[in-house]
Protein 1
Amino acid sequence: MGVFCCWLAASQLPSARSHACRESGARLPEENGPESKSCATSGNALIQRARAVSKQADQHLELQANMQSIRVQGLHQTSNLVAGSGSHIKIVTYNLYWWNVANNNRWNDLHNRIREEGPFDLIGFQECENVESILKGSGLLYNFDSFQGPNKPNSNPAPLAWDRTAFSKIGGPGYVSVGSDRYGERIMTWVRLRHVASGVNVFFANHHGPLGDCGNGLGDRLVRGVIDSKGSDDIAFMTGDFNCGTGTASMNKIKALLTGGIDGGIDQILTTGVTVSGGRKDGWPSDHPLVQGTFSLEDATSGTKSNVYEKVSATSGNALIQRARAVSKQADQHLELQANMQSIRVQGLHQTSNLVAGSGSHIKIVTYNLYWWNVANNNRWNDLHNRIREEGPFDLIGFQECENVESILKGSGLLYNFDSFQGPNKPNSNPAPLAWDRTAFSKIGGPGYVSVGSDRYGERIMTWVRLRHVASGVNVFFANHHGPLGDCGNGLGDRLVRGVIDNKGSEDIAFMTGDFNCGTGTASMNKIKALLTGGIDGGIDQILTTGVTVSGGRKDGWPSDHPLVQGTFSLTGETSGTKSNVYEKVSGVGAWGGWCTCPDGQRYNVGDKNDGCEQGSSSLACVGGVPGECVKEVDSSRDGMKVTCATDGPISTPAPSTTTTASTTTTASTTTTASTTTLASTTATTTTVTSTAIFEMVDGGTNRVCRGASSSDNQHEYYSLFRTQSIDECRARCIGTSNCTGIEYSVDAQGGRCEVWTRPAGIGATAVAPGYTCLRYGLPATAGTDDARFESVGKGIDEACRGASALDNAASYYIMHGSVPSLSSCKAFCVAEPRCKGIEFAAGSGRCEVWVRQGGIQAVAPLPGYTCLSYAATPSKQCADFDAWPNVDSVTCSNCRALVLTAPYEGRCDNYCNSFGHVCTAAAEEQDENCKVKYSAQCGESIRNTSDMLCTCQLPG
């Protein structure tokens, strides 16, 4: 392949990744607080190493001097992709036929068409004059960021949108003018993103082509727009109604650069990546089709050769050397500042020495985005005040989109007891006021605010106040934040961390409420959650803390478009003397690596042990936690970072527990997919084992609604109601809720209806309801794995599952579970999933795919370390689904028992069961019209003086 082109940053040279405090990851002392002595490498040694790297760069680039050109890296190089480290994304392009939809008022049809295509990750619109209104009407505004770009009357709009929970923005957005016609300027919009799950960089562009121009000039301008705007390692995607078909001059130009994708005529998706599946779909009410495709960000492209399309220059080798020496000098200066530190350590904010056993209490905290403009426009103030009032009593509350905190407190009946701080407000700042109960707290510092960012709506801030809890004497630091749109980067995270460190007391327990506009796993949230490791994760609405979480979760926030998130936290001595996770920068740890999950469920992005991921997950600097996959990709945010997990601290997010009376052993697990179960016995010994919570169907699951103690027990406080796009998203809501016990899911005219159940006693019964699904969430105790029903596909080992062929691997084929500890646990996920056709399991990373493809697993692809098994569900059931049972009197129970009418069957359960092909196994008189047994009877015995009876019926044999 010739001499490979070397780029200029010293940190990218092969030897540079072995240094703990090198230029690419180093931070100044004032950015990190007090220094630590955990790094034994001296400052002089660091400087010497950096200079050695600089010299090596000089020598390397002198060899390059003879080339006398700078090559633009081929857009197909994907060296940052490693087997198993990526994922699939779905992309859509859609011309909305704006003027016609508007003239015929078909907005609902348009919104429904977009909604039914979901979920997807990226979408490019053409003929779209208001992208935010489209996202809002389609139910996407909550999770999607967008860029409108130039608009009518002078330009033809080509807005694009991306799921902010799946991507963090790293560049742009922007646009390039590429042509014009009688309707005005034609543009290419673009944005650079980082895929959160895989760390892969993506360049996403969108275009609406001019009419009557498919020439070379247009193609050249599109090509130039991509080359000038994308990053060297980005996988590129371009959506568009190009108004030119494949084979025209302009399309030949751009498709020589973006060689893959989905060809839908003049509506296409182009890419430098790997296309998995896709095609044209009906786009009504538009006159264009909707074109969609699924693309791989995984290893399929790794190491493959491609055509080299490059820009050459007359830049001399001497210029290259000068540039490299400038980088080297900068590294020297930077590392001299680092020399006195000897290491960089993230301050542990878990010190709670001011807590004394028994002296504290619990406090309740709320975060709530008020949807101010919409509530004002629709005069829903009474509804808003009532929603806040009914959530009480609470102690601390953080508001977002709140332009008058005193009026809110007054309308909610809180002004008499609460003090507040409004902070900067409209029109220049986005308000983030906070309020505290003055009868529970005395103020000891502040209030104040820190500017942490900005967006098109103005300055973004973090407000704060320091308080002393009257009952316990514990000091509390309370902050609130409303995050910027389109910025989830490290810089924002650093400013939030600095805002906390600079203003909290050394012994304060810290709490931060917020609509962060960034989800867990983004760079900014990784930063702040490495500092405030506990709390309640409600999506982009969260409560973060250094304290102990007792309970909490998301609740319906109407009339806001956000949920209300609340949590109860302990200020008592149960935290005194306990250990906490220590996340720190040390020597001997590199920038390759991955995620480590500690026993409390907190995840940390850590480096490798400078062994090139040689030992797989064991290479991660993860002590006392569950290591994930070691990814062979440089990530400056984990460079040198190690976590030592607490081994005897309290679990911060308790989950449902079950008690086995025979052995007096209590089992509890956190409700994350990679959780830790602590078994405490009467002999006071403690063993830590990994376990995984799963979803199980209740009473058959399908056509059932969830209930409490009986089929008529359906109190509103048992669950929180959400709107989701799929049952899988509803499951994710449950997993993210600390005390979730199950879900109920259905689809109505407004889309997916998701009940997340948090009833302490769990889901105890169901009722018949066509179109509903009821699933219980907890440990896979009842699922069973029955190995006889799993069979190898192909060889079974060192092969990954595929659909119709070895290249058919659409993301819609499976449900992915991360950090699953064993093959048996992966099988348990399958058994609990009614659609399961088989599993794919990677022992090294704990990746478990539960395949639900309708045609099952029909092929495999070679992939070391992977296992592919097909699954045959149990061919028979104990009894028919309850919707097939006749004369049920509105109550059904578990174990094939229901409350049925006596009159048609002479009060005998044997007659009843025989009437629909079953046999009776038990009979009883009910108590209080539910599943409780008043007295038992024989199947052939007549139960008299009652209108209904409890019959247990099973299929014969």
Note: Residues 75 and 227 are 9 Å apart (CA to CA).
Protein 2
Amino acid sequence: MSKKITDFFSNKSNDSEGNSRGTSTPITSETSAATTSEASAATTSERSSDLANLSQRKKTDRTLKSSTLKKWISEDLAPSNAFVWLNHEENGHGQVKLMKCMVCTTFEERIKHNRDFSNAWIQGSCNLRLSNAQDHAATKCHRHAYDLYIKNLTSKGELSSNMENPLRPHPSQRTLEDGFSKLNETQLEQTIKKFDIAYFVAKNELPFTVFEDLITLEKRHGVDLGDVYNNRKQCGEFIDVNAQFIAHQLNEDLTKAKFYSVLTDGSTDNSVTEKEVVYVLYFDPHSKSNPEEVEVKLSFLCLKDVKKADAEGITSAIEQSFESLGILPNELYSKLVGFGADGASVNSGNKNGVKALLEKNAPWLVYTWCVAHKLELAVKDALNGTVFDDVGDMLTKLYSLYHKSPKKMHELKELHDLLNYEFEEGSVKPKTCFWNTMVAFKLSALRIVLDKYGVYMQHLEHLSSDKEVTDRQKLKGYLRKWKSSRMLLYVALFIDVLNPAAILSKAFQDDPIDSVGAIHNLKRSKQSLDQLMSKSFEDLPSVKHVLNKLVVTDTTCTYQGIEFPVHSFNKAAADVKASKNTVIESIHSTVDARLEGASSIELESVAKILNTEHWKLLAEVDGVEFADNMITARPLSSNYNQAILEEWHDMLSHTVNFLQSEKANYKKTWRLLFNCSYSSKWKNILLLVQLLFSVPICNAKLERLFSKLKRTKSDARCSLGEERLTNVLRIEEEGPPLGSFDASPVVQMWQSQKVRRPNQKRRKKYRARKKKVKYYHVSEKDANSDDSVDDINDVIDTTPAPPASESDNVEDMEVSNDGTDSSGSGRTAALLFSDTDSEASDFVGFLPEDL
């Protein structure tokens, strides 16, 4: 039976199997090469195994004496303060067994999210080399843990003198100046411009893809921006660094602040994830942004995901938010004086609420129910069950009628353009008004309906008479209820009644607002309600506006084309006039009940102490002791009480006699007092003033953040993670305006974080390599067989490459597509090799094409 050339490889495989089974195979010219190859491979494998065992034995046998480690700590590792964090375990013979990092072990939960985190030095490192300890000391993860450790000691007052400079850079570590010097002037200018563009993207709530388009546009305008750091991924990193710089400034402010309060609110984002936003309120008597006044700052701290929005989850979110700035719980609770939130039981519960959990660590905590929420609830209580239910129902259904039908909205606009009435409100579409909306939104919806009342009613008349309208019966019912003089006059009345409450609500929503401003606005709102009580119904502004636009005849009263019988209009006016005082008194009483509780009494006392504009008048009536009871309202030690009262009387006399506080804003007066040469004598009373300015009043700013959250994390950007989303919101909330943002220090901080490559060129694409073929031994007998070249090609394609140890005996030859070798000889190249250890010589040559 004829043999094929592939039988050679089958025999070779069988020979290998036979040898593995312990059978004896005679050495022939066909098998000698395979046998020698296997022997060579085995020898190489044994040598590699011996080297590995030797290396492992050397690593295992490495010893480190305890005295040597102590020398490292005192000399080589001294710059990183290794005496603080480097611990070790001994094997009982004075030799080190393991090395551990104490600070990384202590703060493992805080640092495990860092990119370079490793638990090797927490469990114990057996790599007993000096370079290993030096590398660990230089990691960002270790420096973060060390920073937390130092802050913890500082808060306890246990920081020793030899640890005053605990974060000195390692000699091999790149310093800030070294990293920044790597950028030349051109590269520095390019990088600053890119940081500005990234800041613009985040500040304007734009997607990161716009960064690449802006880079292209700037290059088109001739701006030199280089070829690196131009993609959307780098835009995200630039935004993170910008936000980190803002957070670093906030950390410095909180470190200087004597007290602060925390404000929280919760909601869900577009990915249906529970979010808790945390803000911090603190007082800055030496504000750089406003050099003439003291400043109460309400700053965005963090946006946290909460697994469950219960008291424990919210409290944990608060602590984690401060920890993200490096403020540990000990420092947090030592300065925390207030907690502001809405009135939900999860926040205000006396036993298991967030307030109760915070009071366990800060018993002096003052809980403040947001005054803006209280005001909204007061107005809701006053109007509930009154005729405003009908007015509110009209506002809601009008909004739904046109919001859900573009056709009806188009017809309404055409009718509005045809009518020649004088309109004061610009909007044509009705605005929404639900019970959970702010008073200001209710007022805006009422004003639009009053201004376009005739347009809406005429359009409803047209729709209710159009047989093609499917819901015309429902519209007829609307028309019977709303097309009445009584409804028109009540809309005008509620505009006048809600206007003082809306002004107060807007004042409470200012960011930030202190107790002086809150009490001032509350008193002004009550005065406005009292003035409305004393005015006649016809003199109310909105009612007077309606009466002036009426076209009265003997039988009808017409308002914007809507006719009312005279007798029915007069009767409705009398009914609405009779209810005026009832509605105003109801709002007045509910506001007093909501805003004048025990906490409000304390709030008024605080405002009385801080409002320097009234000090002179009060001192003339009651003397310098007019606020003694307020200052000592909280229990203090007797010695402290006496000292603080003496300082209070001295400061009060100085202010009244020399500063003319009645003519200046109270914030300006306090700036003068804190910078006064006598301030060192009043340190106790000024400390109390800082505490009073840090009491929270309103958290309406937090609700506005959720509007930004919905715009930022839209349906198309639901993949934004917690950290990146927090950074974007931090820039939107706390970032300076675009015109005043300076990216130079941000670039400096970015350059110092790790090694950058500003000179990196764009990488070229790899070219596809030409196909190469490996050729193997072919015996003379097989070479003279009648098998086709296709069988050879099959062997070549299916046979593995020769081992690396035989690479010296193998040459590569490129084969063109037409089957010729690179020399153009017109023959298929089958390069063979011979084994030098074989006694039989192998045939070496080329196989002809016609084989």
Note: The chain has 38 helices and twelve strands.
Protein 3
Amino acid sequence: MATLDHTEAGFEAMIVQHLTIVGGWEEGDPKAYDRTLGLLPADLVAFVRDTQGAAWDKLVKFAGGEQGAADALCKRVAEQLTKRGTISLIRGGVRERNIGFKLCYFRPNLVADRTGLTLYSANRLRVVRQLHHDAKRPQDSIDLVLFVNGIPTATAELKNKYSSTGWDVEEAIRQYREDRDPGNVLLGNRALVHFALDGELAYMTTRLAGEGTRFLPFNQGSGGPGAYGGKGNPIVGVDGHPTSYVWEQVWERDTWLELLDDFVFDEGGVPGRNVVFPRYHQWDVVRACSAHVRVHGAGHSYLIQHSAGSGKTKEIAWLAHDLSALHSDDGQLIFDKVIVITDRRVLDAQLQRQVRAFAQTQSAVVEIDEDSQQLLDALTGQAAKIVITTLQKFPYVLKKLVGEGAAQQLKDGRYAVIVDEAHSSQTGQAAVDLKAVVGAKSIEDLDLDPDEVDGVPQELLAQMAARGQQPNISYFAFTATPKGRTLELFGTRQPGHPDGEFAAFHTYSMRQAIEEGFILDVLRNYTTYSQLYKLEAQAEKELPKGKAQAKIAAFARFHPYAKDQKARVVLEHYRRVVRPHLGGEAKAMVVCASREEAVRWKQALERIVEQEEISDVRILVAFSGEVEITDPNAPDVGETYRESSMNASAGKSLPESRLPSEFDKPDYGILVVAEKYQTGFDQPKLVAMYVDKHLSGINAVQTLSRLNRVHPDKTDTFVLDFVNDADHVLGAFEQYYGQTEALPSDPNLLSDAAQTVLDRGVVDEEEIDAFLAVYSPDASHQLLSARSQRSYAAALELDDDDRLQFRGDLDRFVRFYKFLSQIAPYLAVEHEKLFQFARFLALRLQTHAEGGVSVADSIELTHYRLVEGETRDLGLGHGEVAPLASISGDGTGRGSGGEVPMGLLGELVQMFNERFGEKLSDADAVRPVQDLIDKAAEIGETEGLRAQAVGNSFEDFARGKEDVLIDATLQVKDVNDLILQKLLDDEHVRAQMTQLVMRSLYDRYTGEGLSG
């Protein structure tokens, strides 16, 4: 390495020296640059003349000589660069006088293509120092410009923080923003990317826009390429620069041409104004995967743990195209098809657009948005190289293949399967069916003893063959939050780790994404609330302790009074703290525990909005399907609610598909959700989240991460959590802040789980063989039920708790087998047989729900208080993280066996009160509110309130009714003096209570109920 001096000129000279001696570039003369054309005309002409002699001779003839031809070509290229953009011309060439000219030759896939390699080597890559590019500002110069065949492709501003100026990369960024004219032909239209770098950090942008220019990090991460770390670059030895990868790797001749060929693309709009250049990790992950495949071929798995903010959709598109054209060193195409799996039943529109945008041949990409026949045609046809589909279509393709010659054709191919979001669905039956459709592993490959397979249906053995790793399928699985099973299924064993932990093949961590500013840390303003309750038992009865305690807790937490108090906190916080952000367009999400809770939350929020005449908050709700109210004590029992009708405006329902775009409008501020939009929901205006649901592990991370999307004006996020412990939430995030690891599973767990099922004495082993003799995916339920009837009847003879425990044993074995059968080196036929039987038997038993425990009609909430805790920055990045476990051998199903402990309801309520109600006082009483309503109703009968309610709006009915509230308060004996004084002294409290009481009376009189 050359001796370094500590000047910017020395830094620049060192880079150019490396490029010209090692990197395959030539140094150019800045005086050869034509400022008007934005080209090195001599290089452009020489390249065309040397590589396309016949076409050049035609142009010379038509243009009247060499100079005329040169002028015509350069003028035409300049015009087309301005009109179509640089990347379009570099890839597609240009026509002058109807003569076609290539402007660059890319490396051919086949090593034997000598002509292609000769043309490729003729490309002229030239680096020019100190290019005075602007005639209007002749003193300005760009430190480095990278030309390909005379066309500018990149510029770079270099700084050396150890020089006399002390300037670093920030000064280079400032220069681009403030001292460079974005309208200049070189900077505004020709160069595809602009680099700002010093010896330690690198940034880049594809569009200069003055002060509005956004530079993105182009750093490896402090842990190095594909490894856990934060922002920046790894520390290197005293003789090197942390940013040396830029000129030693990225700008290296072959790599630079590959980037132009395979990675840089124009997203549309004004040509050259929406260019995409990959961030370092995006380029590196594609390069790393392809390099491994090129050496090792098909049949391997690659887990890519890339955080939100990584640009995953673009990574998938780049990887799909790279793999579709990947050849081995001997010139063989490695994959016949690339299959991109998105787990959403409706294909991801953004993913489709991105993959197609990269395609240089549009017919090479097929989106399966119709039926399974379309998927089969794409897999068996020659045109489609990349197929985008959902996993759910493969079972139907498998059925179509029965008896068709195409079945073996598919198994003879090699496939790259890219999984958009790797999680538990990859251990499901649809994932096995994918392998059954295209997997090459045969029954013979199972290496089973003849005695094992005697009498076993061939279809069952084929299922076994489809479960494990297939020699002709490579998996590339993307996720930000891998579970233990995902790591073991797709991950890579860590060398040197004593327990053989699995980790991702490539990592872009949550930490790096946060530090680089691509996502926000959602735990920086985390407020927890505690809920204090006191209950009273209205009847005495003996109940199972565990179930009754859970029901008591749920009764208290989901009580309408408790919800009303939380809803008031949400509205007050949203209006005071959240709404002012983002110019008044900040939004919030309420996360609920169930679909019925989502209905109740929306009703509670809208009731308060109406009562307090709030005009600046509108609310939407999101849940799937229908919600029928079955609680006999609910005023709207029997009502059915749907998302679309609850979001109706002006009497017109809002289709589910339009909800995200509607919520994006300024009119709406709060979205109430239940198991919907907690993952895969990209809304940068989301600033706050109100959590009324237990969250743990990956679910906590995925749910709260809806807040992490960046917005130009978004600096803070807020979480108000009514349920969870903040430290538990922090622990969940710590697991995914860096590189997640998982311990390998105990191979004996499957045998142990199978033995537990058999030891119950319920499953008739002879009946398993009878069941499998008629088993097929299309077999009738009636036939399969008949062949499992003895075991089913034996299960029904168990008492409720033993049957629940047995069903848990079945579920556990089925769950273990689905996963372990995909990673085990050897499978036992008896386990496959038990799996098919146990899965069906467990489904049958689900129709016999165990007797429930009801406490709602026997207890009453008497006191409640919502207590705000401290707001904390939870401090990501400081906790110890243990490897995940894929599956656990602890326990044997859901039950624990033995006699179920019982307890008296009164004693259980007392235990609950001791835990949650010790700090409550008379001021927290709830029951007097209902007494007030009842007393107000008595008064109303004598004062004609019923007649006033009928035919009037609620607003007209409630106006001027505070005297009714005061009269009722004075007449209710259980209202303590503190509450009475509060009503008399506090106008706001009095108005709220009046609205609450009058709303109850109005609903009672008009029969509207809570749905009104």
Note: The CA atoms of residues 440 and 946 lie 76 Å apart.
